[in-house]
Structure formats: C-alpha cells, structure tokens
Amino acid sequence: MKMLTLEAEYDCDFALFGLVSSTRDYTLAWSLNRQLRLRLVRQPDFILNLVQQGALAFSYYLYATEVLTLRLLRNRAAQPSTLQKPFLAPISGSMITCCRCRVGLMSGPAVSCSTG
Question: Which of 19, 38, 40, 100 could tie 87 with a disulfide, CB 3.0–4.6 Å?
Fold first, then answer.
C-alpha cells in the first residue's frame, strides 16, 4: 500500500492539548467545568464526510468568552479507535487565561495531558 505524507506549516493562534481519559465525553466536560470553573456546553456533533468511510460524527463542547475560546473535541468517531489521545482541546485567547487553563488541564484528576 502506497503511503502519502502531507507536510505543511501552519501559523496557529491557539494552543492544542491532547487529553487522555477513560471517562465519557460528558463526564470529562463536567470535570473540566468543575476544575477550571468553565461552562463547556455540548454542541451539535461535528460531522466529517469522508469519501471512502462515509460520515463520521465527533462529540464537540464549546466554552467562549470575549478573551477565551476553549473547545473539547473527541479525537475519534463512534467506531473503535486506537488513538493515544482520544480528546483534543484547542485553546485560544489571552495569554494569562490560556496559562490558567493549561495548568488546570494538566492537573485534572481524570486526565493526562500533552501539548502540541
């Protein structure tokens, strides 16, 4: 099987965290809300239409203020997956607020975190 690799550099204005947790998405959102004093709200599933695999649905939570936007995206669809980081949490906003979220994400009780 021939493998193609896309190499591209992007100028991103957000920090991306990969979260590993054995909890369900709604439990993780609740835990982050409590730990970071946020209000992550469930959004309609993010649908990705792929030609060969069909439509894939990913759970999606959002917290947005004037200075901070935090999204919690499930990094795998409903089908089983072997991804090492089952949740992604891109954070954009002021540096102080992002640092508070970064520290909170890394110290959550049911989560291990790595930055990207």
Answer: 19
Element (H, E) at 53: none
CA angle 64, 74, 12 (to 5 degrees): 55
Q: In whole angstroms, what separates CA 73 from the centre of its chain?
A: 4
Closest CA to 41 of 65, 57, 23: 65
Residue listed under structure tokens 């949740």 = 87
Q: What φ, ψ does residue 67 adopt, rounded to 5°?
A: -110, -10
C-beta of residue 91 within 8 angstroms of C-beta of residue 17: yes
pTM above 0.70, yes or no: no
Is the pLDDT reported for residue 98 higher than 70? no
What are the beta bridge partners of residue 71? Answer: 62
The model's pLDDT over 84-95, given as tens digits with 9 standing for 90+, comes to: 555 666 666 654
Sole residue written with tokens 């990705």 = 48
CA neighbours within 13 Å on the CB side: how many for 11? 0
